[in-house]
Amino acid sequence: MAYLLTFGIVAALFLASISLYRYGNIPRQHILVTLSVLTAWCFSFLIVFTIPLDVTSTLYRQCLEEHRPTPAPSNVSTTPANANVTPPPECQEPWGMVPASVFPNLWRIIYWSSQFLTWLIMPLMQSYLKAGDFTVKGKLKSALIENAIYYGSYLFICGVLLIYIAVKGESLDWQKLKAIASSASNTWGLFLLILLLGYALVEVPRSLWNNAKPGFALQYAYFKAAKLSTEKAEAEEHVDDILECISRVIPNNHELRPCLETILRKVPIELQERASRNFARTGGSGMGATSSTILPSEKALVRIHKQVIKSLQTLQRTEALWSVQVQTVLHLEDVARNIHSSERRFKSEFPRQRTQLERICYSATLQWYWECLLKAPFLKTLCVLTATMSAMVVWSELTFFSRHPVLSIFANVIYVAKESYDFFTIEVFSMAVLCYFFYCTYSTILRIRFLNLYYLAPHHQTNEHSLIFSGMLLCRLTPPMCLNFLGLIHMDTHIIPNRIMETVYTQIMGHMDVIGIISNGFNIYFPMCMLAFCLATWFSLGSRALNALGFQQFLQNETIATELVQEGKDLIAREKRRRQRAEEAMARRRDFNRQDPGLGGGSDYLSKYRSGGAGTLTSGRTPADGLLRDGDGSFDYAAVASSSALGVPRSLSEEINDRFGMSTQVQVGFRDPDYEPEHDRRIMGPPPRGLFDDV
Question: Helix, strand, coil shares of the chain as percentages rounded to 5?
Fold first, then answer.
């Protein structure tokens, strides 16, 4: 009967793998980063999928306790020990029932493994990746120092709490210390969770409603494009400034020259050449070849190395998000252009190559009906449902501590289903509420841009730093999210005692009973602050404050927003002209390479431009043979930097690939009509040199 638990484990692993494949570039990432992030995401998903099974198992055990037959006083000594082996007819075993020893061991493994990852392993890995040292020992030392400073505050708080407990005369054992450690982590996660939910419970329904209005969505997309363009330009200028510093530091014959070469290996060739040209115009002779008498120390190079890593990471983020935003704007423009079409066929200005299965299952007609007719009502229906769920969550958060009467909506639903022991309804309802919590919390994380460094961009464009940061947040937020849900349904005995049997999950998590101000104060009353955060989000107080401080936000009827929308339109128009010129250039090359049967002597005509004659058209030529590069019919011209040699404007794909080399592998160029996706292996690239590639 444990098939539901097995299904949950498989589903969690599948979702974590698909998400990691969508956002990360697995062949380019280090294996330790991939395994750590996959484990963190998988454990977070698994906790959400398994909590409903723990809830129903707990209610089933309580049903057995309530219907345990009471033996007569005269038969106490003769009653067999297994008199209650057969469950009473009122207690039907729920779906997915597992042995009693499974959940304690499962929760211990999942919880403590994820805590070990999020508080020790992943912060060290993140600091190691950002360190600017040139040796393994130096990188590890910098990572340990950075984390020691970060965790020193936590140790100080723990010391104060331990002194407080000792003054109160409480005895401490290993179990209480573990409970304090887990509860401290959950308290930190609860604080961040309430902030995220206070934003998401309002923003999720509002974004669904706004996305149902094509005009508003397009205006907002223009606004975001303008902001991203500004950020991209600032990131490029910052990289140029740092590279100019590199070009002035060390001559070729200096002993620290290998350290400089390590820094330069991280910089794409295109950026190095541009920095060299800029430096040559100012009187220098190229990167790293200056005759300056002021030579930096190794510590200065370490600092420069760290700045290079950070600046390239920011540039990569802006380039990746810009390419995604351009695709979004072009799609919204296609929707606006097709919405009044009488042909009822969706036509795209820049169509992408689609497989045969896509053309059959999602034809142009079906796409028109979905994008132009059905999508808006569907999103508005989802908006109503999510708004109702958000109102239920806020009300339950405000009233879940009330014991008599029971005011929490979620607790009342569980009580009604418990009276009839409808375990199926309890599982479905618990999964629906947890999935909504899951979506609100994690969708906010996916959109977060912490200090303009961490982001999650699809199409394999997320770097390792951002993946590690997202894994850390998921591991820290999932346990308190599930504890908060159990409190809402009154299955946490430390909040609502003597009403329902406690789940195994809350038993393993522990509670800070030894510190009354946290167990009876913060964990109960702080969730009530969610109402204040929701009201602030509803009236856009945060956006108005940021806009007043100079951080442009999309506020209607604001002059700066209107100007940015117009700027975004101009940028997209410029990008469309660039793509059109690139498509026209590729079309001319394809027409020139294609033999025209009407000419008769087409091979002789083409042989004028080749040294091998007409017979070489189908011979074993390589894509690099000849200026036209027509040796292979399936060769992808979007990845070849030949357009500049032909006087054709460079495409967005060429610029990104030249700037980052093999780091991002953003493929937004245009494909040949005969392009076959299964032959494309450029996104994979060669494997990295290893975790210690800087030494």
Answer: 65, 0, 35
